[in-house]
Amino acid sequence: MPHTSIGTQAAWSKSGYHGWWYGWKLHLAVVVGSVWIPLAAEFTIASDADNLIAPKLLEQLPLEVRYVLGDTHYNTPELRAECALHNRELVATRRGPYPHRDGGVEVRRIFHKLRSLAIEPFNGVFKNIFEWRGQMPVKGLKRCQLLALGAILLYQIVLLYQHQRQQQHDLDAVAAPTMDRHTLGAVR
């Protein structure tokens, strides 16, 4: 019988960055931009392959999305075909020894840098906001899904609120009278 602190529904996985780990995996599609906005999310056991979950994420993306950035695990013919169905281009790192010398290497390098500026910082921010640096505070796949995906939804709502508030602030600033430098200099 496993220790009571271990989620028995969880599974093992191996990361090139983190090594072997046991638990869950939050699959995300995040906007690459000045603000990290999660557009799609799935929560699974750690051993679920990224490229098999990715089509579920793609279904949730707006039609305007044209480029999908991913690491080596997403670079499969099946996922390329899925992207092509929606007029999207999959830009993913390639397997094999470096340096790659094909025509797309510079484009992939740029997009991979953009991806690393979006998903890795978002993961860090997200974990810090919800204080998830270790074990999930609940057990079981369904409870962990509810908590993690609910946190993504809450994060999206906060971003929407901040966006709407900033728009209102911008409107108020345009409507409010302004003082020039001379007026401010006269006030003491």
Report on this model:
The protein has 188 residues and is an alpha+beta fold. It has one domain (11-176): Nucleotidyltransferase, domain 5, CATH 3.30.420. It is 46% helix and 18% strand. The chain is built from 5 helices and 5 strands. It has helices at 50-60, 77-85, 105-129, 141-175, 181-186; strands spanning 11-15, 19-30, 38-45, 67-70, 89-92. The strands form 2 sheets. A 3-stranded antiparallel β-sheet has the order 1-2-3, with helices on both faces. A two-stranded parallel ribbon has the order 4-5. The longest helix is centred in the last third of the chain and has 35 residues, at 141-175. The protein is globular.
Strand order of the largest sheet: 1-2-3
- Strand tally is 5
Strand content: 15-25%
Going by helix content, strand content and strand pairing, the class is alpha+beta
Mean pLDDT: 79
In the CATH hierarchy, the architecture is 2-Layer Sandwich
Ends distance: 76 Å
Secondary structure blueprint with pairings:
Elements (H helix, E strand, L loop, with lengths): L10 E5 L3 E12 L7 E8 L4 H11 L6 E4 L6 H9 L3 E4 L12 H25 L11 H35 L5 H6 L2
Parallel strand pairs: 4-5
Antiparallel strand pairs: 1-2, 2-3
Helix pairs in contact: 1-2
Task: Give a brief rundown of this model.
The protein has helices spanning 50-60, 77-85, 105-129, 141-175, 181-186; strands at 11-15, 19-30, 38-45, 67-70, 89-92.
List the main descriptive attributes of the protein structure presented here:
alpha+beta; Nucleotidyltransferase, domain 5; 46% helix; globular
